[in-house]
Amino acid sequence: MDNITVGYGGEPVVRGISFSLDKNENICVLGPNGCGKTTLLRALAGLLPYGGSVQLDGKQLREMKARELSKRIAMLSQTSGIYFSYSVFETVMMGRYLHMRDRFFAMPSERDREFVERCLRAVELHDVAGKEISALSGGQLQRVFLARTLAQEPEVILLDEPTNHLDVKYQIELIEYLKEWSREDGHRAVGVLHDINLAMRLTENILLMKDGRAAALGRAGTEITAGLLREVYGVDVVGFMRQSLRKWEQYGAGDAEGGRVETS
Amino acid sequence: MRSPERYTLTSTDAMGRKITVTAALCAVILLIGIAVGSVYVTPADSIAIIWHRITATPLPEGIAATDAAIVWDLRLPRALLAFIVGAALSVSGAVMQSVLRNPLASSYTLGVSSGASLGAAIVIVTGISLPVMGIFTLPTVGFALGLGTILLAMGISSRLDGNMENNTIILTGMVISLFINAAVTLVSAIEREHSQRLIYWQMGSFQGKTWSAVAVLLPICIACTLAVSRFNRELDMLTFGEEQAKSMGVRAKRVKWVLLVVAAALTGSAISFVGVIGFVDLVAPHIVRRIFGASHRYVVPMSAVLGGGFMVLCDLAARTVVPLQELPVGAVTAMIGAPFFTYIYLSRRKGAR
Predict the structure, then answer these.
(1) Which residue of B has its CA nearest to A67?
(2) How confident is the model at residue B5 (pLDDT cuts 50, 70, 90)?
(3) Domain spans of chain B?
(4) Which CATH class is domain B4-352?
(5) What's the gap in Å between the CA of A227 and the closest CA on chain B?
(6) Residue of A200, B82, B93, B345 with fewest CB within 10 Å of its CB?
(7) Does the model's pTM come out above 0.95?
């Protein structure tokens, strides 16, 4: 994407953002509240009109039909309230909407069913497929939505703070799952995550934003420096993290030195 | 551990049973609605009469011609009309609630009813009669103004708020609805000689309805309900919010417009024939969701069945509870519906999970 401008009519909220993302790569958008992260994401999802150019494999986003766009780009948001309850299976099946809408009566095919089941297995919810989603815990519900997003078979997943309201275990699991997902089939993820630690867990490829503009773009530790983070967030982020780390070190070393954090 | 396929299978079985029971119950109610009245005709005789009229064969011995006339000319069209109106209102309510993500949304709150009332007031007070339309003048004007009101509400809210947020639509609709209601009240205050008829219209009644109303309303309602059914999946997805629906590929804004207009047309055409009847559109979909789940594949048809049966029951009460007098059915729906609704809602909530 090149020189993106997005706004809600009137003054643009996001100005002059550019970045590119290879297949099997992820990027995280960081920045303080109100810097335009979510606005940028909504433009990428086709929910807001934008100025400039956004291309997916050489094709302009705004030239894509709405259907093609939502077939290729899916969004995982933070959990919202549920007004009416469906079963887990039904909810995940909604992700297959575009894949079955051309069929007569839009009935799910055997392949749709299999795919939904595979997605449920991936997020380990196949045991509760028949349960009503209103009876699930927040963590389970977010995994239902993840499964639904996966069921869309998108090439790109946009993450709009999906880890909000999740326990730390599920936060880690969600990020680890997405990391794994993005390693295959040319998948990509663009993440807006409030938690800087989680963001860097997903990828070290970072777009740092301030007041709707790009403050920096690059890798953590090289382009994204401690001084820059302090300037953008108005607080010594790195200092804070190191302070926290010292506190955690009182607990003795965990077994996850440099590797995976075990979740059970 | 149960696999998803097994689950789907058992749930379909249970669902089939529930549907059969509900449909049978509504059929029985319909039959009682035909049999019971100031003159009692046994259900068996009623069925015989209907059968012989449909097949155009002579009546069997032992059934009086007056009974046949009562059943075929008065009770059957009236009960059928009540069923159709109840079904139309309930389907419309289900759509409004889901599309606007608000359990209290209905055509009533969005101004369809007040628009139609204004139309009725104009026709009643001025006594005009449209050419060609004749006795259908009032329904036509009522329908037009009812639909016009909601289009106005949606037009204004899309001006105010490009995204047409649900709350904007609901608030705009309510404001317009209150405004028009005030206008109707003014009219009935000034035109005292017509106020009685107007007030009765605003409380709804199936009194004196004949086959002609059924003949007009039935095709409209079937067409609109089929149109709604075409959007079952989109309705499911819209309950998660427009943005999520969009990201799954639903053309949310377009679908929303189509569904709201179809729902308004359902309500508008129903009440323009029988006057304002509230409550059923609010209650029936909620009860259906409690029993059959929230999937619109079931919610839409079962709202029609349950809402229709409920309305027949209410009309039966309206014309039989107080001898020699008809109660306004709009009041009866609320009198029966409110406690029933509270019972269903609370008992299910306590019982399940």
Answers:
(1) B249
(2) very low
(3) 4-352
(4) mainly alpha
(5) 37
(6) B345
(7) no
